[in-house]
Amino acid sequence: MAIPTAISAASIAPPESTPDAASSPVESAASPVESAALPFESMPQPLESQDPRIRRTRQLLQQALATLLRTRDFDKLSVQEITDAAGVNRATFYAHYPDKFALLECMVAGRFHALLAGRGVVFDGTCTNALTGIVLGVCDFLSQTLAQFANTPCAASNQVPPHMETAIVAVVRGMLLDGLRNHPPASPTPPTASPELLAATASWAIYGAAREWVQTPNHLPSEEIAVTVQRLVAPILLQQSA
User: In whole angstroms, what is the distance from residue 10 CA to residue 14 CA?
Assistant: First the structure.
């Protein structure tokens, strides 16, 4: 399973005052794969395209969203505000993302995959070390997210904003589902459990455990809790492969 290149607010240069290259006919004409009409699971990862104009546009949009989230509530943000901050037009936005939730999920995916890529973690449905790495990544990602919202009520209550929770779980579910589909278990327990159900169950279990950890005062190091959570979640996923 390929791990996409990370997108991080710190690594993206501020938008240059240049014309919106993304609105050119070449880029605005989205291919069938990149069509905003497709379900998000069928859409490409944020920097998957080799076209530098497409990559640049997605960087601008994700950087704009990351910057706005430092002071604004996601639920109150409009697509127009995001495109204004990114310096692109609405038509360009919808050529890349069906809505702001898809943009958020791509932003979270890029950053989360960056943590795993730095550790060489690729989940193939069978490896306990990879599963531990995913759990550790979620713990560290939650810690970093709370730090980013340091001046908001969420940080004061040690809670991640709901929209971020949904995006994190969706990204983890996607990783686990890819691994299960590529290496399906020989005999799922129970036999009626589909890869989608297994991935959904495990992703929420991982996120819930990581959230409990990050909200616990004087918690153990993330490396220690990751091993514990992996042992709890492994029976759901790491069954004998075919």
Answer: 10
Residue 223 lies in a domain: yes
Task: Indicate whether this model's pTM tops 0.90.
Answer: no
Please indicate, yes or no, if residue 107 is contained in any of the structural domains. Answer: no
At 30-39, the pLDDT tens digits run 333 233 333 3
**Does residue 38 lie within any of the structural domains?**
yes
Whether 6 is in a domain gets the answer: no
Tokens 């006919």, located at residue: 25
| Cα dihedral value 132, 136, 137, 142, nearest 10 | 140
Task: Based on the fold, state whether residues 71 and 174 are members of the same structural domain.
Answer: no
Query: By 3-state DSSP, what share of the chain in percent is helix, strand and coil, each rounded to 5?
Result: 60, 0, 35
What's the number of domains the chain is made of? 2
DSSP per-residue string spanning 7-75: --GGGSPPPPS---GGGSHHHHS--TTT-TTS-GGGSPPTT----HHHHHHHHHHHHHHHHHTTTS-GG
